[in-house]
Amino acid sequence: MSELTFTPVIGIEIHIRLKTDTKIFCACSTDTDAPANTNICPVCMGLPGSLPRLNHNVVEKGMLAGMALHCTVQPRSLFFRKSYFYPDLPKGHQISQCDLPVVADGYIEVHDAEGKLKKIRVNHLHLEEDAAAMHHSASDGRLEGASTSYVDYNRAGMPLGEIVSEPDISSSAEAVEYAMNLQRRVRYAGASDADLDKGMMRFDANVSLKCSDGRWGRKVEVKNMNSFRALERAIEFEIKRQKKILQSGGEVLQETRHWNDAKGVTTASRVKEFYRKFIVEPDLPPLIVNQEWIDRVTAMMPEMPDVRANRYVHDMGLTQEAADILTDDKNTADYFEACVKAGANPVRAANWVRTEVLRVLNEMQKKISEFSIKPEVLAEIVRRVDDRKLSTTQAKEVFDYMCANDSGLDDAVKKLGITEGGVAGNALVEIIANVIKANPDVLAEIQSGKDTKGKKFKFLQGLVMKESKGQAKPQEVVEALTAALKQ
Amino acid sequence: MELYELDLYEASKGIKDKKFSPKELFESCKKRIDSCEDKIHAFITRTDGTAPVTENPNGIFAGVPTVLKDNLCTNGIRTTAASKILGNWKPPYDATAWKYLREAGAVLMGKVNMDEFAMGNTCGNSAFGPTHNPNDISRVPGGSSGGSAAAVSAGYVPFSLGSDTGGSIRQPASYCGVYGMKPTYGMVSRYGLISYGSSLDQIGPFARTIRDLQLVMSVLAQYDPMDSSCFREKNPDFTHNEDASIKGKRIALVKEFQNFTLDAPIAEAMKKTQKVLENNGAVITEVSLPVVSKYAVACYYALAMSEAHTNLERYDGVRYGYTVNDAAGIKEMFERVRSYGFGSEVKSRIIAGTCLTEPSRCDEYYVAATKVRTLIAQEFIRAFGECDFILQPVTPSLPHKIGEEDEDAMKGYETDLYTLPVNLAGLPGLSFFTGYDDATKLPVGLQLIGPRWSDSEILNAGMILERHLGSPKIANGGVK
Amino acid sequence: MKLSREEVNDIALESRLLLTEKELDGAVKYINNFLDILDSFKELDLTNVEPFSFAEALECPLREDKVNAFTNTQGIFNESEHVDGSYFKVPRIMED
Fold first, then answer.
1. Whole-number percent of chain B with pLDDT over 70
2. In chain C, is it the N or the C terminus that has fewer CB atoms within a 10 Å radius of its CB?
3. Kind and range of the H or E element at A109?
């Protein structure tokens, strides 16, 4: 009997918070730092008589996110009511575009197990409202054992885009790459901050296994993943769990399971979910997006990271690795390009940004938008190195000084005692005299003619260079040192 | 003549001309309410405890008292939709329609009775008990806006607001002998109206003259960005014009409706009204509405209940209204709140709506009903290509006695056939007074409907009818 | 009868309604009666008919993305018996 093999079939649903100032159906603020239950009104509290009003910007951000995923904008979409009873849902139903979304039919590329590019199809992105945030009072913050729950309606009505993939994903690695790629692209498009820590990006995965003997396990929906790591672990756990069931001849039940991050397991959801067909939201007429609007939003779309990285490799001569690092974050790539535009050599500017700039930002826990050294200034540093006005070592010292002291370039150069054009003439003579004075035994050795291989001479030369902080020109040091030793 | 007997136009004019003060008018209306309310029971909440302050002394309703159906939200004033589930809920905001009246100077006397969540046509399905018809207190005032109709009929106030989802303005107007207007869907903002069937609901006025309806409509029919189903481009002109004419207008009877039996007074009123129309130059014709006459009732209830059950999902006791404090879990809390809070009729409709939208039945019932609705709307568009207005009854019979239950549950539905197609197609409909039945002394009303946005023309036709058929008198309100 | 007592009761529970025997009797009669009436739709050919959504071509109006805070939040809080500090407190989620 041959060994059974299993192929995972995975689809992912990703909720992203669309970047707007107000909620999807009311004029309440979307500020995530606001105290609990301060951004509330009759609409997002589901008060009797209140009616939804669609936010223009939510549609636009949904279009941007969709375009970033190669989707097509649908000229006519519709809102529906999706019913379930839960205290986080003020109206007892969620207003969602589920059946007729604003954008559809896109894809994201990931690398398969062999490293080849593979398209994961995006079925659609639809607009919907978020539910309220629930805080459970059990000490560990989990549902089990909690005796009461606290509801914060600030989150109710926050605008979401739900992005539904086709079941084209075959591994947890592909899933994570898909999610990371999606995050990068929607951030580029300015559609969402997709900040995982702030709950602005959440994952659900549909996992099933296809068995080599022809059996196909039922689809299991795994919910409650809030990090890439959780997404990866939850899928791996679920693949293992289902494999075990199928190997022992059992049957995988179609169900909803919850990922428990603390325990690292999925558990069957005890909340019965009623899948009711949605009725049309009678309070919102169809959403019509005309070609003029589509054109306007298309024009707003920035170059996507993969296209950009390609350009860096082919037009600027960067390595793929450097290009990928620089384009990971749009602001970093923008910074880099501003450096190049200001006249810096692309390859060297790339090295500076990915090593020095990203290191310092990481140390300072700052965003590149908050970085004190403007790209034009960094370009000037790179240029001075090229023009040999600064040695590489000096340039780094200057850079660090500027970061630490928030100072300008010329100011830093002056403060560090670096003089334009290097150490020469009398200054060099003075350094050499001091070096010789400090090393009488070496001087004696050279003068006695024992330094036939010039080793001692090189030793003194090195000390002079060090004393001049690398600012002396080597040829001048050799000449001046030879002259001084002859005296 | 007492001040409460004045209609809206006269009352407003009297105040402007300083013939009497808003306070005198208020006191007169209050006295009238005090003398009749025991018998009629129109109010759920009275707000006439203190002397009124008009918000706008120069507004067209400055100092004129009014009442609102209790499904219209009033800031800080109890709003119940005649349901236990809302408890003593005081909305933190005003319905737009009320805001417009308030800003025009109207003074609120209170919130009036209705069928719970507007589900019913007798005003007897209220958690606060039934309202009585001021023309005969042993009879129903009609519903669901029974309190609004009774208050105007009994002379509590010269005008009031109600809502109409399937006839809830037109039927009680007819039963109580006042004028009632159901505007074109999208003309009056629904913001702050507690929803029953959102795609069918529309707010409208009751009054004792057509001129008064025109006055109220001129204030109500304003675009409101808070209601996304409200139309921006329409600027209807409700100016009262004595010279308006119906000469040459084609007024149709519905062919299929001729097979249905009508109570004699209503059949007579139909004849009398046709004669008046013809005498004024109109042409009586006939249109055919086969789909409407056969399928509208089923279509209406399928859609109203499908929408209603989702509109009523929000009542869970967490944020407002009736609640319990000792539930062991959230499911128990929701079950106890909803089981106690909703009345039986509402529960039945919730269950029916849930049933129709279940995945296994959704296409067969809910989706099919939305398609039938398309056919109905198209049928009316075709019909209004052949005529200007349709004349038809509001109900096949006069108001029945309170407590006289229909044995056949579906008979109640058939009596809605004349009113609810109007809501399905989003049309305007006017319920107008034609006179009193000799035998019962009950008022007899009929209905004029027109194409979408023909509201002002319907009222012009109504003005001519009023001129020839006479205006209704204030009912005795059970007081001899 | 299209729906049994049990089925009607299940739908009621789904709607978070506990019915008395009398209410259940009424609901069973009401719904079955109603479903019979809805069977009349089968007489119509609806294959090429678009579902009705709005009374005439109406586009969803779009609101400008500008914060306009609701000023009467106290009026919202006043109406709930479940306010605890700045939160709304509900009993724990007990699954069935």
1. 98
2. C
3. strand A103-111
